[in-house]
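User: Modeling request: complex.
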Amino acid sequence: MSDRVQSLSDMEQPETPGSAETRSGITGMVRTMELDLRLLGMVGALLLIWVVLDLLTGGRFITPRNLFNLSVQTASVAVMATGMVFVIVTRHIDLSVGSVLGVIAMVMGVVQAEILPDLLGFNHPANWIITILVGLCLGLLIGCLQGWVIGYLAVPAFIVTLGGLLIWRGAAWWVTTGRTVAPLDSTFILFGGGVAGTMGETASWIFGAIMAALVIYGILRGRRRRQLFDFPLKPLWADWLNISVLTLAVFGFVAAMNAYPVPARAAKRLAEAKGWAIPEGGLELMHGIAIPVVIVALIAIAMTIVARRTKFGRYVFAIGGNPQAAELSGIDTRRMTLYIFTLMGGLCAISAVIASARLQSAANDLGTLDELRVIAAAVIGGTSLAGGIGTIYGAILGALVMQSLQSGMALIGTNTSLQSIVIGFVLILAVWVDQVYRRRIGE
Amino acid sequence: MPTDTAHPLVALSDIHVSFGGIKAVDGVSCDLYPGEVVGLLGHNGAGKSTLIKVLSGACHSDSGDIRINDQKAVIRNARDARAYNIETIYQTLALADNLDAAANLFLGREILTSSGMLDEVRMEDETRKIMGRLNPNFRKFAAPVKALSGGQRQSVAIARAVYFDAKVLIMDEPTAALGVQETAMVSELIKQLKSEGIGIFLISHDIHDVFDLSDRLTVMKNGRLVGTVRTEEVSKEDVLGMIILGKMPDHLEDGSEAGKPSAQ
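Assistant: Request completed. Predicted assembly structure:
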């Protein structure tokens, strides 16, 4: 009893940072800004990895060229990782995402390279739209099917998606009996972020400006709403510091992407294809942000809004926190399971577009082992396998950490077996650190 | 004391529930009037939780009637029960530990903005208002409920029931996990809700938890009703006898009227 009273009074801290003046040092500042310490830790770890890899590669890692490649390589896993957050938060798992990606990529390959050219003609402007719609529908359907078995027939997700892993990989082979499909539609491959698949300089700056505007709007709107109800606010400078850091990050990224020039010959080809006049003294083109990265950004924003601002997202976290409570609160948990896996299937389809467009072909082994990368990304990003905890930005950062390690080591010349050993250790280390941190703050 | 109303808020009559071959509840009847606290007592496994789950929609009865405000009621699930303004506070509190107080309070009944998004600020505002009424010391609105003490968690669970205008409140072992001060706080809350005309079922296996708070006590043993007595007419020993031996106290043996509140 006395223990309880003690811990009770210990916990009676001010609920808001109103008394910021009484705190000092970095801890005080962090608390005042209501920063997510885990987010700070992850960003810090990522920067540390980058700096170390940069030193080990003699300055070849933190370059516009490498960061561009890194962003493109991360995209496919990052898209699926956002969905995996919902799956894991609700105490499920999805082992089938790599195979689902594979079968969708194969079907989309056949649709755009073999079926539509016969009907509409090769590179017909509607080809890529129809192809992606077919892929999306297939992804939603597969996800819906698996979600139905998990939710309504109550077969554990581990089993259903383990079966799915085998079934869809086999199905991917059957689509063309193992033959690789190429070439793909010329508009479709832009989603892979090749030389042409970028936004270019101007559009990248505009995109960056829109992102920054969204950040400012989001933070200030939240502040105004709280003001309206006379809730305690964090100091204005804290909000503006957050805005500055985020805006700087956005523009820093755009600047880096815009500093990566397109090779002269490719630039010339691109200009000819688009009918641009080539100025005297040669054409200087910059990559700008890759289209798959734009897709990741849009999906991240949409999924974050779903997670934080909608009933659906609220129920996802409620089910993860306490399934019985969610049920007793009138939440239809079976239907929620169906929806969550359907969403996951849809995201697999988007990843399939990115992954096959990047390779400019559809092969039946596409996405092999992606399920493990996706799960690892979500988990490194702080998603708890016990359910109830996880963030979208964390999963994307997790994907970035994994890809950074992998391509950094490739750059150093580490052989692949050592790469996987290192990544395996990092996965375990990340989860251990996260659990120690959680125990510390008494979550 | 209960008001002199013609009909009870809730009347359960001749409820039967069996699981497999085991009769968990065997022909039990009980009722609850506005502004009244009825303690439902019995050993673990006496069937009291199962009986009350029939009312809260978590369990189906094989036969028997539920009447609410003298109207026959059909309760198939928790949502149906809520539609009848029956709110249940489970022993486990049924809180999502990872969410904050406001999210738990409005779980399943969120306030939305005109654009269909969660109106977090309004929900927090409503939470602050109701907690200000029930537990003015409560200030941890931003923390997940996992970080709250037992009493604070209990008050969130009670706030959830009260906010949505409960007419009938079912509390399963409300103070079993609480310390002395917190138990006192919950007792105060129960008295306050009672004075607002809410009917309350208190379920407990421990007579001491409910004796002082209850107007009437209904005792069950092995799935059967032992009897219902007015608290003022019995001693704790009498009730213990009912729980353990499964028979009415001697001085009330012939008092078939004991089950009615405010008789005479």
